[in-house]
Write a structure and sequence with these properties.
about 300 residues; alpha/beta; binds NADP nicotinamide-adenine-dinucleotide phosphate; about 20% strand; NmrA-like; oxidoreductase activity; globular; Rossmann fold; 2 domains
Length: about 300
């Protein structure tokens, strides 16, 4: 039975991860309570979840609170300062397994197009591995959540929601690997509670499905009762050249984050957004633990 700590609860994944860890799916593999670390002071602990109010900057206090924990799941903002705090905490706690805050595109694969893009995630996992712990990076593709990514936030699919227009990058049949946040919660819970985490590859690619970009446009149109107008269209090669030009001249501009993702999506399989391989059987063989959801 694994004792598990979760860090960073109030973002996209906190609720789905806790829901999966508390569900019956993995209950016989988990030593409850889960230690759930948050800066918030309004949480009420239960027999399954023990909330710990702390700031990650207080690394010694957090390490003390997590002493003896087998698995640390990090769901924080991808931020080098926070990552530095977590590395100190991991060095002191020495868990058996760390699942770092990767979740999203396969960052390593995107390096060919935009060298250094999200490199802080790669550096973080490298630093954690140097501490001698097993680290499983989980790439999930784009998040899908009805009130948020891939439904309301659709700029990475080329949609300008301010003008209801589309700047299409890539072919008409472009697709993206996406995961619902519910599935991501289960994937994380499955890896975190696995009795033998050394069986997982260092980098795991798991997703709910590959969704046509056109389906995301149509879903947005339906949900908002609007017609999106095609404003411009560029081939994958044109998109690649344009990304290279802006990346080489400007470097990383935070406001263009979703645009970079769109350029990467346009390149198709193997560049970080559309995965060739789905390693879902490693975490949920034959849907033994849960039923995969769909976009
Ligand atoms: N592929 C996609 O579509 C996609 C979309 C979104 C995110 N992601 C990835 O998913 C991961 C989580 O992202 P997110 O957007 O959910 O994160 P987020 O909302 O920015 O932050 C998650 C949590 O991190 C903790 N945190 C933030 N700043 C902190 C600080 N200064 N000190 C201590 N804790 C702090 C907070 O937890 P508390 O408030 O509970 O303390 C916060 O709720 C990231 O790796 C991100 O890149 C991918």
């Amino acid at each position: 039975m694994s004792s598990i700590a979760v860090i960073g609860l109030s973002g996209q994944l906190g609720q789905p991860v806790l829901a999966a860890l508390e569900s019956s799916a993995f209950a016989d593999r988990i030593a409850y309570p889960i230690k759930a670390l948050t800066r918030k002071d309004d949480k009420v602990s239960t027999d399954k979840v023990q909330y710990i109010q702390a700031d990650l900057a207080d690394t010694a206090a957090v390490a003390q609170a997590l002493k003896g924990t087998d698995v640390i799941v990090e769901l924080t903002t991808a931020n080098p300062v926070l990552f530095g705090h977590v590395e100190k905490i991991v060095a002191a706690v020495k868990p058996k397994l760390v699942i770092p805050s990767q979740f999203g595109i396969h960052v390593g694969a995107a390096q060919e197009l935009a060298p250094g893009f999200l490199g802080i995630k790669i550096d973080h996992s490298t630093n954690l591995r140097k501490l001698g712990v097993k680290v499983v990076d989980i790439a999930t593709g784009f998040f899908a959540e009805k009130s948020s990514f891939s439904y309301e936030l659709v700029q990475h699919y080329g949609v300008d929601t301010a003008t209801n227009t589309i700047n299409q990058l890539g072919p008409d049949d472009a697709k993206a690997s996406i995961s619902t946040v519910a599935d991501i919660g289960y994937v994380i819970a499955s890896v975190a509670s696995d009795p033998n985490p050394s069986r997982f590859p260092d980098s795991l690619k798991v997703y709910s499905e590959n969704v046509p970009v056109k389906k995301v446009w149509e879903t947005y149109e339906k949900n908002h009762n609007v017609k999106l107008e095609l404003k411009s269209k560029k081939s994958a090669a044109e998109a690649r050249a344009e990304l290279k030009q802006i990346w080489d001249t400007e470097g990383f501009v935070p406001a263009k984050f979703l645009l970079y993702l769109n350029y990467i999506l346009a390149q198709g399989e193997g560049y970080g957004v559309l995965f060739g391989e789905n390693e879902r059987e490693l975490v949920n063989p034959g849907e033994k633990y849960w039923k995969w959801s769909q976009y």
